[in-house]
Amino acid sequence: MYGAIVIQVLKDADGDAEQTSTQLEKMGYNIGMRMIDEFLAKSNVTSCRDFKETGEVIAKVAFRMFLGVTAECHHSAPTVSPPADGSPQASSDAAFRLVFVENPLSEFVELPEHCSNLAFSNLLCGVIRGALEMVGMRVSCRLVKDTLWGDEHTEISVVLKEVIAEHYQDDED
Length: 173
What we know:
Layout (H helix, E strand, L loop, with lengths): L1 H11 L4 H27 L7 H17 L4 E3 L20 E6 L21 H13 L2 E9 L8 E10 L10
């Protein structure tokens, strides 16, 4: 089913793998924004104390609930290049990597040579980004390894960019 969606998005993008990857991330973002409500209602998870715990909950609870798999959550320096603006790179407390030994989205999939740079599982990055934004965390999320690219496992890097402050407005004003 997911493969058929990817093929249609690829056709709509006239075979442009980069544009397709971007569109898959946007689709995932919209899904994640809606999925977080179901996750919070059904998982009985309380507020996470920190970003490390957030990573563990995503890896062990959310992915099992929605995809039937778990991921390993590694807390170390993010696997992204330093920002071009010279700002300090995120600390290990503000980054984690999700490593999937099995990725149900890419089972039985082979990328044709002209799509070798397609981020086939980029939908997952969008889901994570959308869900975390709805609970007040703006993140950067990207696929850094994929079995479809010849890697041993699929890996997603998640870096906390900002905690979004909640603004309350008095109804009497």
